[in-house]
Specification:
32% of the residues lie in helices and 14% in strands. By secondary structure, the protein is an alpha+beta fold. The protein binds zinc ion.
Length: 311
């Protein structure tokens, strides 16, 4: 076992569960069945009886029982929480990601289990977009890249048409945040829809390369600046660049090539979400590996499940 796993949350199941409770319920447990969060009406079932699952709570409001994993992507899993912490830690250390093979070898689960764990953790790491970007007078950079292709040799990322899937990314330099979307094929219509849904058109300067995908949509923004990459100019005359979004793709492509050599196109959105999460919670923005891991696990709560009603 590596030295990094000295922390008790990687070794002691009770500690791992308590740490997960602290992440998921910072203000105390709440019932995933009825949403009750009144501490007077939630009791921890602490018995010496073998029949009791550890970490079991009883809700006096709906008479239901629950643990910290009920209603999460871990719910049906038999994998100990110590191993979930390890996998989440490995996926959130460094920016390039980790392979299922590495998880399998490092934490001692089968390759198949490692693969499923990673997909569940990617689900946890997929961010729910909140308010649109821009609108404050600053730039939002947009770019796209293509994934897949018809021949095996062409598999991977390519700049240019012909790929089956493409990824459009938006980065707002002022906040350092990115959003990335997988599209089937590529069309100006799809790109426009992504832009209009995710970026405030008023008081935002859209910055892109010279691609015609953005020409029409660009006219809807307060300003549209283009950078001519074909001319190897990375800053245009007005001083705008697409460096941030290119950096995002740089990390994505390196990680995908190095770590996920056999990424099936149907899973592309999940991989992209994983990279987006790490990018938006990167050390350059002051987020430590430990904080990133905890934040990833905070997302285990099913995205389709109800939110805590009070806050
Ligand atoms: Zn309840």
């Amino acid at each position: 076992m590596t030295a990094v796993f000295q922390n008790p949350i990687f070794q002691d199941e009770t500690k791992a569960r308590e740490a997960l409770e602290a992440v998921r319920w910072p203000e105390g447990p709440y019932c995933p069945h009825c949403g009750n969060s009144d501490p007077e009406k939630i009791a921890k079932i602490e018995g010496k009886k073998q029949s009791h699952r550890p970490g079991l709570y009883y809700c006096n409001e709906c008479k239901g029982q629950f643990t910290v994993t009920v209603g999460t992507v871990f719910e049906k899993s038999k994998v100990p929480l110590t191993k979930w912490w390890m996998a989440a830690h490995l996926m959130n250390s460094g920016k390039n990601g980790v392979s299922a093979h590495e998880i399998h070898r490092t934490i001692g689960v089968t390759y198949k289990t490692a693969w499923f764990m990673m997909h569940r953790l990617r689900e946890a790491m997929s961010e729910v977009a909140s308010a649109p970007m821009g609108g404050t007078g600053g730039p939002v950079q947009a770019d796209e890249t293509y994934y897949g292709g018809t021949s095996k040799r062409a598999k991977g990322y390519v700049k240019g048409f012909g790929g089956k899937s493409s990824v459009v990314a938006l980065v707002e330099p002022a906040t350092g945040q990115a959003r990335a979307f997988v599209m089937k094929g590529t069309s100006a219509h799809q790109v426009s829809e992504i832009l209009f849904t995710n970026v405030v058109r008023k008081a935002t300067t859209l910055v892109t390369d010279e691609s015609r995908l953005y020409t029409k949509a660009g006219t809807e923004f307060a300003d549209h600046q283009t950078v001519l990459h074909t001319a190897k100019k990375y800053v245009n005359e007005a001083g705008f660049t697409t460096n941030h979004v290119e950096n995002f793709f740089g990390v994505l492509k390196r990680g995908m090539r190095g770590t996920y050599t056999h990424c099936d196109e149907k899973h592309l959105q999940r991989y992209v979400a994983e990279f987006q999460f790490r990018y938006n919670n990167r050390s350059g923005l002051g987020v430590s590996d430990g904080e990133r891991t905890a934040k990833a696990l905070k997302g285990i709560e099913g995205k389709r499940l109800t939110y805590r009603p009070t806050n």
